Write a sequence for this structure.
């Protein structure tokens, strides 16, 4: 069991979008507010589909919302 | 806390309390130190029935205390639910295999029934515990 390595800027992007609340984002992407909180805190990795929905709602590219650290070669 | 997480907590608490009550009542009925002669079937059935009723009442009670709480489930709830059920199911299999082996070895039915009941309780307990931990710490990535 390991925590997700995916990081995100959802919190900052929400504030940039007229201080969108977690509840409003959750409603737009069809999940509970607790799931948005878990994603923001890195406790849950959303599916690719949900990740795209989040990016669309925040009106940014996917890689502006989610980042994944490069593997050390 | 989502509705499903509250349900996991209820299941966790009810499983522990229900089994503790069962063990306490059965042990209080032991006569001459012979456990296998102790009447247990009625207590077992009442404990199982009571645990189901208590779960339902607690869930209704939470709804009454906080009527505005959301009862919506989403994909994360379903993933955590599946993970918890998967973890708990191992104990159902262990219980079934143990009961089969004990019956083949002609163990007393008191032990067979109690091992099966214990494994059901462990299934509910460990499954609920897994759900609560994953809700709190995050969904593991394999």
């Amino acid at each position: 069991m390991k925590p997700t390595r995916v990081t995100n800027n959802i919190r900052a992007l929400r504030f940039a979008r007229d201080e969108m609340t977690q509840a409003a984002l959750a409603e737009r992407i069809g999940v509970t507010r607790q799931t948005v909180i878990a994603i923001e805190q890195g406790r849950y990795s959303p599916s690719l589909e949900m990740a795209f929905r989040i990016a669309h709602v925040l009106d940014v590219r996917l890689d502006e919302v989610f980042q994944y650290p490069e593997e050390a070669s | 806390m989502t509705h499903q997480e509250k349900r996991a907590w209820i299941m966790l608490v009810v499983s522990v309390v229900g089994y503790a009550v069962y063990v306490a009542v059965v042990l209080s009925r032991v006569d001459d130190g012979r456990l296998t002669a102790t009447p247990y079937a009625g207590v077992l059935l009442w404990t199982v029935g009571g645990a189901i009723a208590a779960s339902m009442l607690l869930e209704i009670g939470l709804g009454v205390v906080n009527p505005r709480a959301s009862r919506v489930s989403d994909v994360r709830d379903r993933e955590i639910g599946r993970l918890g059920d998967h973890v708990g199911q191992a104990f159902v299999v262990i219980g079934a295999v143990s009961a089969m082996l004990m019956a083949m070895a002609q163990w007393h039915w008191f032990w067979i029934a109690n091992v099966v009941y214990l494994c059901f309780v462990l299934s509910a307990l460990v499954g609920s515990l897994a759900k609560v931990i994953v809700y709190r710490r995050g969904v593991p990535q394999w």
